[in-house]
């Protein structure tokens, strides 16, 4: 959904500071590592199915292998498409906690002459607090990888992430690779990506704040490089080429002006020997308001403007029809046939244009499109039907099937086999950033989720996308709070970013919703976590602006009809309800390291235990189910703490070196305490653990093949199924694990 507020793709600065990797030399090379046997931990791990939900930034069909394709995402890793199975296989789940910054994929490259070879350029952020990038290389389509750590940073979740592939196998030599960076110019490898050095002779000068090289594409034996830091004038080049891999030159006669300021993608028609380039006035995916499409006859050097529709018109309702151009793909089977996409076209909605005559005329595929989103109903976004898309920058035409076109949006991949009927081509690709999870003790659904960008969902099945789609009335963008009354599980409340209200309640376990009758004035600018007490008679709502500013919490005892400020509640804290006693609420003040409690259903709070770890808003307090006053505090590398007296005192749990998030599930047979699950650390690894003996001992339940980068937000067990655990990731959706039987 379009929103000016920070979404799940906002910088996790707190997490980044804690886990940013140390920069290493490009000479640091890791050997090939096979993925460990799935289930080596005694668990089987799968995604809870939603279907996509994130920005797919690139799709690349293999030019030499029918049915083989690869996809990249901005924060959720890379995938390989299996046409026979009709699904995507994740390729980077082995990247662990310390490598969280490598889950963003800046670029993918394949070698047309060696079908097993695939290369990934990884690095989510290019900021000072983020670790350096890396290149993964595989000889077996991603089944095993070798890794080279770079001494530069990449930015797969920054502006320009929807541009073309910045990684390329040289068309003259399979041992030579090129890598375009944002701030460090053009790099070259002559040993298939094992080592990298600055490419000599590349004329464009990198800057610390620019886009740098935005794509690399082969045109015959030549290599073209798009440059994102031109100013749009004829005196500043934004497209370069080399014919011999050594000498580079600016391409003569290239277009200029605002509509051709930033080249976004390029593709070469081998039949007509023409290079097509899409342009915009900003790198995107946001902020583009002008753009164009041009082609270069590489033999003669002649340029032509083939823009389908010039931005800047007026829609029927009088809105300005501003947009740029983004996606671009040629049909390798048919000369002069290609497709391009608009981007950031909010007034008239983005589309894909197709031409069969080299750009003389174009057809908008949106105009005749028929969508079937029954497999992923959330794509209707609370409306009667889905729209064609937004953030369309990934676009590909199957080299073996001219009518098989796929394009990415900010939430899915759509595919067609006849240029008219479209459906999500997304099975196996799950990119949600997960904020909250609840596993109800009764009812049809074993899981409710609060998610970045797509609100709240009711999962009646774990193996199919929720049939109700996003929770509506109102529809949210990113969820900020989700809570269930422990003694009245039919009562659920939620909070989040929305244009038509920021809070809602459900009396049927989350199937249907009604908005709060009223909400505090601050809510629309700073919706935060929400809690309900055990019997649902009192609500506490905390408020935190996306920039970190904290505001006073509010309380309601009439289902959100009226609200009153609670000045004694620590600003910005997350309210925690006692699961057994409706008069009790708790809050952990991370600024002071103090536990506060309320004995009057949240009307007032007083301090109890103090002197606990402080200074990190990501410390988490949870209450054990079915017990009053049994509290657990995950304080990261400060360890795990427990109170059995309602927060009057805490003791450190000796069995745990570091704890990031903790939850509970059904007890093991013969045990009298719930199973405990946590994301925690030993002195060597951060992993997912289970304890069946009240945290005396722990068993690791994930393995090295299933790590998913940063997983410190939430983990819970299923209160009805022993051993089942649900884990939130930041870009790989909801993972759930079950013991092998």
* Oligomer description: single chain
Label the structural class.
Answer: mainly beta
Q: Indicate the radius of gyration in whole angstroms.
A: 26 Å
Count of DSSP H/I helices? 1
Arrangement of strands in the largest sheet: 1-10-9-8-7
Taking the alpha carbons of the first and last residues, their distance comes to 41 Å
> Overall 3D geometry?
globular
Helix content: under 10%
Number of strands: 59
The major beta sheet can be summarized as: 5 strands, antiparallel
Structure description:
With 741 residues, this protein is an all-beta fold. 1% of the residues lie in helices and 38% in strands. The protein has one helix and 59 strands. The strands form 15 sheets. Strands 1-10-9-8-7 form a five-stranded antiparallel sheet, with no helix packed on it. A hairpin with a 5-residue loop joins strand 23 and strand 24. The longest helix has 7 residues. The protein is globular and about 80 Å long. The two termini are 41 Å apart. The N terminus is likely disordered.
Write a short abstract of this structure.
InterPro entries: TAT_signal (IPR006311), WD40/YVTN_repeat-like_dom_sf (IPR015943), Xyloglucanase_GH74 (IPR052025). By secondary structure, this protein is mainly β. It contains 1 helix and 59 strands.
């Amino acid at each position: 959904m379009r929103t000016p507020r920070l979404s799940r793709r906002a910088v996790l600065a707190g997490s980044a500071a804690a886990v940013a990797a140390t920069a290493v030399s490009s000479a640091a090379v890791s050997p090939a590592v096979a993925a460990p046997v799935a289930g080596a931990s005694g668990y089987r791990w799968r995604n809870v199915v939603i279907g996509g939900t994130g920005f797919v930034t690139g799709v690349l069909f293999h030019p030499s292998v029918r049915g083989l394709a690869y996809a990249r995402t901005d924060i959720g890793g890379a995938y390989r498409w299996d046409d026979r199975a009709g699904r995507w296989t994740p390729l980077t789940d082995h990247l662990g906690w310390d490598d969280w910054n490598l889950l963003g994929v800046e670029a993918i490259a394949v070698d047309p002459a060696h079908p097993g070879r695939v290369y990934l350029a990884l690095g989510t952020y290019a900021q000072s607090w983020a670790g350096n990038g890396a290149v993964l290389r595989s000889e077996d389509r991603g089944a095993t990888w070798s890794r080279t750590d770079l001494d530069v940073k990449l930015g797969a979740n920054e502006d320009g992430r929807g541009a073309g592939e910045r990684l390329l196998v040289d068309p003259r030599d399979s041992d030579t690779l090129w890598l375009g960076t944002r701030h460090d110019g053009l790099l070259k490898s002559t040993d298939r990506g094992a080592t990298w050095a600055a490419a000599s002779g590349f004329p464009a000068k990198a800057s610390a704040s620019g886009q740098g090289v935005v794509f690399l594409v082969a045109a015959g034996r030549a290599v073209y490089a798009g440059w994102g830091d031109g100013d749009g004038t004829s005196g500043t080049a934004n497209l370069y080429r080399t014919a011999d891999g050594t000498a580079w030159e600016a391409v003569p006669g290239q277009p200029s002006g605002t509509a051709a300021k930033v080249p976004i993608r390029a593709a070469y028609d081998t039949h007509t020997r023409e290079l097509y380039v899409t342009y915009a006035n900003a790198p995107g995916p946001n902020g583009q308001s002008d753009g164009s499409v041009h082609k270069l006859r590489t033999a003669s050097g002649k340029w032509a403007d083939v823009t389908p529709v010039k931005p800047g018109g007026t829609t029927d309702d009088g809105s300005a029809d501003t947009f740029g151009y983004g996606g671009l793909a040629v049909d390798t089977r048919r000369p002069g046939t290609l497709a391009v996409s608009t981007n950031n076209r909010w007034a008239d909605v983005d589309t894909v244009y197709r031409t069969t005559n080299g750009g003389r005329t174009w057809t908008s595929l949106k105009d005749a499109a028929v969508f079937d989103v029954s497999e992923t109903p959330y794509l209707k976004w609370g409306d009667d039907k889905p729209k064609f898309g937004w953030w369309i920058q990934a676009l590909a035409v199957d080299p073996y099937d001219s009518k098989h076109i796929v394009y990415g949006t900010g939430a899915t991949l759509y595919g067609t086999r006849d240029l008219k009927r479209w459906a999500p081509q997304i099975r196996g690709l799950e990119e949600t950033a997960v904020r909250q999870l609840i596993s109800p003790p009764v009812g049809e659904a074993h899981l409710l989720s609060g998610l970045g960008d797509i609100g709240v969902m009711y999962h009646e099945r774990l193996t199919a996308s929720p049939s109700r789609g996003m929770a509506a009335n109102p529809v949210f963008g990113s969820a900020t709070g989700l809570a269930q009354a422990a003694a009245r599980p039919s009562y659920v409340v939620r909070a989040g970013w929305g244009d038509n209200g920021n809070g809602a309640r459900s009396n049927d376990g989350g199937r249907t919703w009604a908005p709060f009758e009223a909400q505090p004035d601050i809510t629309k600018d700073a919706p935060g976590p929400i809690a309900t007490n055990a019997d649902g008679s009192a609500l506490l709502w905390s408020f935190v602006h996306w920039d970190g500013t904290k505001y006073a919490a509010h309380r309601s005892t009439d289902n959100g009809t009226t609200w009153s400020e609670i000045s004694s509640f620590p600003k910005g804290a997350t309210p925690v309800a006692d699961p057994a006693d409706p008069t009790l609420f708790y809050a952990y003040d991370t600024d002071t390291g103090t536990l506060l409690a309320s004995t009057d259903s949240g009307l007032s709070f007083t301090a109890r235990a103090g002197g606990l770890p402080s200074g990190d808003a990501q410390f988490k307090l949870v209450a054990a189910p079915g017990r009053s006053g049994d509290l657990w505090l995950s304080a990261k590398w400060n360890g795990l703490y427990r109170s059995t007296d309602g927060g009057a005192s805490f003791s450190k749990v000796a069995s745990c070196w570091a704890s990031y998030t903790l939850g509970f599930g059904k007890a093991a047979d013969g045990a009298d305490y719930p199973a405990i699950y946590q994301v925690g650390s030993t002195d060597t690894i951060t992993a997912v653990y289970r304890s069946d003996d009240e945290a005396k001992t722990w068993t690791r339940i994930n393995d090295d093949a299933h790590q998913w980068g940063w997983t410190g937000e939430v983990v819970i067990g299923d209160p009805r199924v022993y051993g089942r655990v649900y884990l939130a990731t930041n870009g790989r959706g909801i993972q759930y694990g079950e013991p092998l039987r």
